[in-house]
Write a structure and sequence with these properties.
10 strands, Alpha-Beta Plaits, 2 domains, 6-stranded mixed β-sheet, 4-stranded antiparallel β-sheet, alpha+beta, Ribosomal Protein S5, domain 2, 9 helices, single chain
Length: about 270
């Protein structure tokens, strides 16, 4: 039996730069893993199975965990998934679970396959979760360049009841943004990332906030509570605030009794 974490991510910045001929979108983003995580337990078994403590999460072939195990061609295992990362929150929980499954089963059974190629067939951001940390990404999100570490930044995650479909979020986009380029992001991370809030934008905010103004209100409240940077992550609906100190973050958390507020940090 082997138990492993599957860490969530946030997007410090997310620019959609164009539509591709294959139906996907090109983007430029700055990925960051955070301490919030799901937990997966793998036990050798006579058949492949998945259980989950969240009844809203499918445990059939719709789940990327099962699809990752089958794609890898590993011997059968019983997989138990404990969920902490909300589905449909823009935190990459399903993708992280899939990447952890690829890594763990390839290690357990000594399977030598190109995990990055397998990961991309499962989802555009799955390759990032194979390594995590801080990374600049372009293409569909699979062209990755490691960036300077941004560990230990206190975060407050506001996780509302509202959920956003990624496909619907892309369908609502009305414009594309020019990329900043990796050198600009390197300058920002080398200097003080949290002081560059004006440049750390998420192109999904405009159409999603128009449809769900409660999310924009949460972002405003984070700034009012002392966040140095606040934004929606991914295609939503989680709103993230970064704070200069853990004490400031913890004090702000008490102002959000009307929404699930989770303390975390970058890892």
């Amino acid at each position: 039996m082997l138990t492993v974490p599957a860490y969530a991510k946030i997007n410090w910045s997310l620019r959609i730069t164009g539509k591709r001929t294959d139906g996907f979108h090109d983007l430029e983003t700055l990925f960051q893993t955070i301490s919030l995580h799901d937990t997966l337990t793998f036990t050798e078994s006579d058949h492949l199975s998945l259980t989950c403590d969240d009844p809203t999460v499918p445990v059939d072939e719709r789940n990327l965990v099962l699809r990752a195990a089958r794609l890898l061609g590993a011997p059968p295992v019983a997989i138990d998934l404990h969920k902490e990362i909300p589905s449909g929150g823009g935190l990459g929980g399903g993708s992280s679970d899939a990447a952890s499954t690829l890594i763990t089963l390839s290690t357990m059974f000594g399977i030598d396959k190109p995990l990055a190629d397998l990961a991309l067939t499962l989802g555009s951001d799955v390759p990032f979760f194979l390594t995590g940390g801080s990374a600049y990404a372009t293409g569909r999100g699979e062209i990755l360049t490691p960036m300077p570490r941004q560990a230990g930044i206190p975060l407050l995650l506001l996780i509302p009841r509202e959920r956003v479909s990624t496909a619907r979020a892309f369908a609502k986009l009305q414009r594309f943004s020019p990329p900043l380029g990796i050198e600009r992001y390197r300058q920002m991370t080398d200097d003080d990332l949290l002081s560059r809030a004006a440049e750390l934008v998420n192109d999904f905010e405009e159409p999603i906030f128009r449809r769900l103004p409660v999310l924009q209100a949460l972002k405003t409240r984070l700034y009012d509570a002392g966040a140095a940077w606040a934004a929606m992550t991914g295609s939503g609906s989680t709103i993230v605030g970064a704070f200069r100190t853990a004490e400031g973050r913890d004090a702000a958390r008490g102002q959000f009794i009307d929404v699930r507020a989770v303390a975390a940090e970058t890892v």
